[in-house]
Amino acid sequence: MKTVVPQTLRKLRRTAVLSAGVAAFVFGACPAHADTTLYVGAYGGSFEQMLKKDIIPGFEKANPGTKVVIVPGDSTTTLAKLQAQKGKAGMDVVFLDDGPMYQAIQMGFCGKLADAPIYHDLYDIAKFKSGNAVAAGLIATGIAYNTRLFQAKGWPAPTSWKELSDPKYKGKLVMPSIKNTYGLHALIVESKLNGGSDANIEPGFREMEKIAPNVLSFDPSPGKIAELFQSDEVAIAVWGNGRVQALRQQGIPVEFVYPKEGAVALAMGMCVVDKSANDALAQKFVQMILTPQTQALLAESQGVAPSNKKTQLSMAVAARVPSPAQIDKLVRVDWDVVNAKRAEWTQRWNRQIER
Questions:
Q1: Other residues' Cβ atoms within 10 Å of the Cβ of residue 244
Q2: Where are the transmembrane segments (predicted)?
Q3: Is 80 exceeded by the pLDDT of residue 32?
Q4: ∠62-310-300 over CA atoms, to 5°?
Q5: Residue 224: CB atoms within 10 Å
Q6: Which of 60, 98, 241, 310 has its CA 20 to 30 A from that of 263?
């Protein structure tokens, strides 16, 4: 007689196997003293929960006496915390979107990554040119839409960035603030589609003024966006493919679209904080995130395309993350240009768009 294994039990077994694989990846004995605490600045929500449940236990087991504490926050918040703690003990590792990560590097907050064999297994797009940071994974910024609401309205699925200004979405759009990478991506891509560029943002602001009347919320918090989609208060949003997957896992009827003009590349950066009191342990944490085992966990739970070329994904998971072909088509951002103008653009956004 065939034994039927409940889905929940299968999931627990799979998680245990993956966690065991992470635990097995030990970079030599760690000289951590009892109760050594590693502080990791990371995204909140489903990402934080995934770290606590599936990754940190294996790391702590592989490094006896170590406790990992997550300091949750979006990229803007974590960067502000780095500025506040400069010269003092604080976070040891941080996850930041690529734009804020380049700012953190420029401000001297990220130390050099120690050389290790794992870095030779990464795609070139995952490597930051300074050598002070690396991408834990790759995400696409595109369009999320409420499948239940679209079906009820008889609307076809969106296909283009230009649809964000369609009057039928009045009061039904979430456009994250420019302080958030997704909102900044939207401004840049709208500029490029209307004759501008990273350096010439004027067309982007003109287009955003047309889009603004459709916006119900500029709040980029995952919890708020989940609530708005679940209650059918919003039909469409500018959002990342990984965040959309997290919403789907909550049972929210939402799909991700790669706009025909191209989604925007977002690297989930991570670095070891300069002069960390736990530098050796922090380096091991970063390297562990890049192992094929952990990369597979990130892809499965967060919809993040692996940075490590050796990562093996099931067909189901591979279908939910940007493929190598899709990554090649992503719109790239020149962060050296954009970061130099970001403060100025933010002030202008607050005056003209989010008012």
A1: 25
A2: none
A3: no
A4: 70
A5: 12
A6: 310
pLDDT at 9: 40
Contact 239, 220 (CB under 8 A): no
Break the chain into its structural domains and give their ranges: 36-138+266-322, 139-265+337-353
Q: What is the pLDDT of residue 6?
A: 45
Amino acid in position 123: Y
Q: Residues 139-265+337-353: name the CATH superfamily.
A: Periplasmic binding protein-like II (3.40.190.10)
Collapse the DSSP code of 204 into the 3-class scheme (helix H, G, I; strand E, B; otherwise coil) and give the result.
helix
The tokens describing 277, both together, are 């009191």
- Global model pTM greater than 0.90: no
Q: Count the neighbouring beta carbons within 10 Å of the beta carbon of residue 126.
A: 23
Q: Which CATH class is domain 36-138+266-322?
A: alpha beta
Tokens of 256: 């991700």
DSSP string, 129-178: TTSS-EEEEEEEEEEEEEHHHHHHHTPPPP--GGGGG-GGGTT-EE---T
What is the C-alpha to C-alpha distance for residues 188 and 195, in angstroms, rounded to an integer?
A: 11
